[in-house]
Amino acid sequence: MSSLPRRVKSEAKALTSEDDELPSLLNSSSESEEEEEEWQPKSRITKRPQLPKKNEAKTKKVAAPRSAVAMKKVKKVAVKEEMDVSLAIAPAEDDRMQLQKPKEEDTGTKWKTLNQKPEVPKKMEIHSFQGKNVKSLENDEKPSTSIPLVGNQVKHEKSEEDFAFDEPPFKKIKSTTCPEGKPVKNLGGNKVKEEFEMNWDIVQALSEITNVEPWVCANLIRLFQEENTIPFIARYRKELINNLEADALREVQQTLEELRTVAKKTHTMIQKLKKEGKLSGCLLTALLNCRTLEELDHVSAPYKTGSKGTKAQRAKQLGLEPAALSLLQNPMELNLFSYIRPNTKGLSTIREVEAGVQHILADIFAKDKDTLDFIRKLCQQRYICIQSALAKVSSKSGNEKDIDKFQLYHEFSCNIKNIQHHQILAINRGENLKILTVKVNIPDGVKNEFCWWCVNERWRPKQFSKPELMRILRNSVEDAYKRLIYPLLCREFRSKLTSDAEKESVMMFGRNLRQLLLTSPVRGRTLMGVDPGYKHGCKLAIISPTSQILHTDVVYLHSGQGFREAEKIKRLLLRYNCSTVVIGNGTACRETEAYFADLIMKKYFAPLDVVYCIVSEAGASIYSVSPEASKEMPDLDPNLRSAVSIARRVQDPLAELVKIEPKHIGVGMYQHDVSQTLLKATLDSVVEECVSFVGVDINICSEILLRHIAGLNANRAKNIIEWREKNGPFINREQLKEVKGLGPKSFQQCAGFIRFNQEYIKTFCSNKKTDLGSRAFLTKAGAQGKKKSKPTPCALQQPNPLDQTCIHPESYNTAMRFLSFIGGNTNDIGKSDMQQKINAVIQKEGLEGTAKRLNTTVHTLQLIIDGLTQPEGFDIRTDFDKPDFKRSIVCFEDLSVGTVLTGKVENATPFGVFVDIGVGKAGLIPVRNITEAKLSKVKKRRSLGLGPGERVEVKVLNVDIPRLRITLDLIRVL
User: Fold this and answer.
1) Residue 626: HSE in the Cβ half-sphere, 13 Å Cα cutoff
2) Mean of per-residue pLDDT scores for the chain
3) How many CB atoms lie within 10 A of CB 316?
4) With contact defined as beta carbons under 8 Å apart, do 580 and 528 qualify?
5) To the nearest 10°, the Cα dihedral for 403, 407, 412, 417?
6) Cβ-proximal residues to 433 (8 Å cutoff; 6+ apart), any chain
7) Is 842 a residue whose pLDDT tops 50?
8) SS3 category, 576
């Protein structure tokens, strides 16, 4: 369950989500020009002049009609081919699904054709001024990812028996074409049909950004399209995703959404520009090449409605475009003096004509893909740093307290490759509060090398050019860099850093939340929950081992009545035989803790051996006034509800914490600065993952808990509860299909995460049979002539022992065959006999051999083995940490350097871990002090991070009493 290591990000741009709150600098328009007067573009747009090129004019004339026909052809073929490569699923002998192999004689040629990767032209740009890609206009409208037409391929309709109707998709198994278990889901390779086609392949782009294999990405796209949930994919589709963890799946899903957002916005922009008549072949290609929202903004900014137009557009309106193109292609024949018009503004002098040509050239350079790729590559090799300084305005007028918070960043500079995520978020917050000014510093060497490359290589004129024309070219390159390319690079760097930092912050929040939700429950104890307070007293609630409220009260411990109230507390603890006190960590927590610690030390509660623990009460007050709390505890005062919630957080943390909105639990960092949409989606997904993996007993769990099971929602959970109240308890998983609104897909997603207490069901069924038998006897005696009434659903249903395991119903057939293979039966599930039988077979046959014999995958077999060997009532949370129970207290003033203490991790951040050591203020273990050698070897870890709830032994390194800061060193994890 622990998180994956931070994977190395590839060179591809990370994409920012639609609603990311970026600093104002990032959202500025791509043109940073100041104009003194408003410029109105002419209503009629002049046609782009063609350069006189050898053997080219004819080709271009024919290109337009051909491209239209070609486009229609390719579109049709793309759809047909896409249909062709999808595989029909046929039921296998063992009621499982199997990949169907294509018939060799029918599709021999097709197989070869489709397995060959279609040649996609790498560059789709039109360099009309350089004589490259003469026929590029022809290709403009062809989506580069479509499969080329080969011969007259006709799609043959398959018979209806080949398709599975009204059945959930089943797992794919190994086939001869993929010996390593990599499923070939599509004969055309990793091609996935997307709603909006771009010049880049979505599978390849997703693979580059997330660093996940392309075949896995292709499978994930299809799984998400089929509306599969992350918990279901992570547990029951392991062979399709190469055993990825839920965190990695979430990252792929978010990146996929971002890429689709870019594609959707690009096509919206294309349609808009087409309607306005501004779309040229060159622009279409540039738009279809965009992979990020920043690139899209850069390309489309000049064409947005309401834009006063760029300097280049104005120069083009004045008819200077032929001059600019001629400077690159045919400088010998260029005479700039012929463009002078004394009465026309912008053409009245030779200087104005030169400036116009310069603006057009700068615009060409700044939009050229090769040029931008070169400068980006150059920046990756050089030292680019981000700098922040105290803003002049804030230093004069501003809240000193706020300014001091950003003291570290008043004179800050760091290489963008080395800067930490929390530093980026801090800088952004300071900039938004107008306390800091931020800039990206690109060294002059980059500019000089870039300008030299542009003038001497990329944009070097085709013929000899006069010195004055070369001067215009050099000025154009410098202008393009300074006015267009440098601001774009700055925005890209800032946007990428912010996006990565936000994602890491959200991921960290998710990891912390998972650790907190999976805290081991404290079963079988009567607990007293205490919500501390001064004036309004401490609220008490005593709850039974089954979470029933036994007693609620209010005691005033901190208003001089402490001794009298101690008698009442002792009486309550003895009456309900309660020896565990749970104290909320809010106001008056330390005083309440000291009060109980003092009484415990004096053995005041004898004969009871009372212990206490501190628990986070974040979100308890919000929950106590929520509609859910009113429905659950209608007769209880909201103040007392929070005491009940605090006690239940120790008894069953997951069941209690799911009632609170995740962001109120307070284990994040900079949670208000990140995209709220991304944060909510991630946290909801983590809650769903935790609840699903732990599993719920369908006959006793609450409606709120049911909502968070994969495949269920508020409506379906409500219908399940209503069905349960009307028909009695569920006997087996199949009965879920009778619930209104729960179709095959929902059943497939949720079935594996729902549990049944077999003892309870057997008792219920035996009682039901007795009841039905007596009823049947009465019916026979009393009303022989009457029509037979339908038996109740329960009478027909039989309990299935596999329903208490994590095995999915789609694998029941395989599980039963495995049981007969090892000579076991369902009554032995979870017993030591079962473990011995399985071990004997696996040692003899091996896991892969057994899987092959059963015609299933190794992952499915492992899941079946886990389900059969886990004891009844198995809980994955038993491996996680329990609350830290104490009997005494340490004060802040008692701390000294070198003191060794035990504590509990409260929150984890990228710069360190906060530990509650019981002195009222959490101490920080800096990330440099957390090394692999100090971490527990027993725990399965995928990162060096510690999560909330883990118990640690620490040494005090520094105590800063004025600033209430404690620096700790990690000794070991307990």
Assistant:
1) 15
2) 75
3) 23
4) yes
5) -100
6) 394, 402
7) yes
8) coil
Size of the chain in residues: 974
**Token pair for 434:** 């107008």
In this model, does residue 252 exceed pLDDT 90? yes
Per-residue pLDDT of 223-234, as tens digits, reads 999 999 999 999
Q: How far apart are CA 365 and CA 96, in angstroms?
A: 58
Nearest to 966 by CA among 934, 918, 908: 918
Q: Where are the alpha helices (DSSP H) in 652-743?
A: 653-657, 676-694, 703-707, 714-727
Tokens for 737? 């299909």
Give kind and range of the element (H or E) at residue 439.
strand 436-441
Helices 281-288 and 246-276: crossing angle, nearest 10°? 170
Does the pLDDT at position 217 exceed 90? yes
Q: Does residue 537 carry a pLDDT above 60?
A: yes
Residue from 778, 733, 769 nearest 751 by CA: 733
Per-residue confidence (pLDDT) for residue 268, from 0 to 100: 92
pLDDT digits (tens, 9 = 90+) for 105-127: 343 333 333 334 444 333 333 34
Distance CA 945, CA 966 (A): 19
DSSP code, position 186: B
Q: Is 832 helix (H, G, I), strand (E, B) or coil?
A: helix
Residue 20 has pLDDT above 80, yes or no: no
Helices 858-869 and 832-845 sit at what angle, rounded to 10 degrees?
160
- Alpha-carbon dihedral 834, 835, 840, 845, rounded to 10 degrees: 90
* φ and ψ of 186, to 5 deg: -145, 125
- Asked if 451 and 474 count as a contact pair (C-beta separation under 8 A), the reply is yes
Residue 60 pLDDT class (50, 70, 90 cuts): very low
- Say if residue 891's pLDDT is above 60: yes
Looking at residue 666, its pLDDT comes to 73
Per residue in 898-946, pLDDT (tens digit) is 877 778 888 888 888 888 887 778 889 988 888 777 776 555 444 456 7
Across the range 855-868, mean pLDDT stands at 91
DSSP 856: S
- Residue 7's Cβ-count burial label (10 Å; 0-12, 13-18, 19+) is exposed
- The first and second tokens of residue 682, run together, are 């991630």
* Average pLDDT over every residue of 24-32: 40
pLDDT, one tens digit per residue, over 287-341 is 998 888 888 887 887 777 655 677 888 888 888 888 888 888 888 888 888 888 8
CA distance 819 to 826: 8
Rg of the chain on CA atoms, in Å: 35
In Å, what is the CA distance from 310 to each residue of 41, 129, 799, 878, 934? 10, 21, 74, 65, 60
β-pair type (436-441, 923-926): unpaired
Residues 6 or more apart in contact with residue 233 via CB below 8 angstroms:
220, 223, 240, 241, 249
Q: What is the H or E stretch that residue 906 is in?
A: strand 900-909
Greater pLDDT, 304 or 270 = 270
Identify whether the C-beta of residue 642 lies closer than 8 Å to the C-beta of residue 586.
no
Number of Cα atoms under 13 Å in the Cβ half of residue 497:
28
**What end-to-end distance do the CA atoms of the chain give, in Å?**
19
- The residues that bridge with 900 in the sheet, in sequence order, are 955
Q: List all residues 6 or more positions away from 754 whose beta carbon is below 8 Å from its beta carbon.
A: 695, 696, 698, 709, 733, 736, 803
Paired tokens of 112: 């070869």
Is the peptide bond between 607 and the residue preceding it cis, with omega within 30 degrees of 0? Answer: yes
Residue with tokens 């800067």, as numbered in its chain: 419
Given this model, what pLDDT does residue 677 score?
87
Secondary structure string (H, E, C) spanning 266-305: HHHHHHHHHHHCCCCHHHHHHHHCCCCHHHHHHHHHHHCC
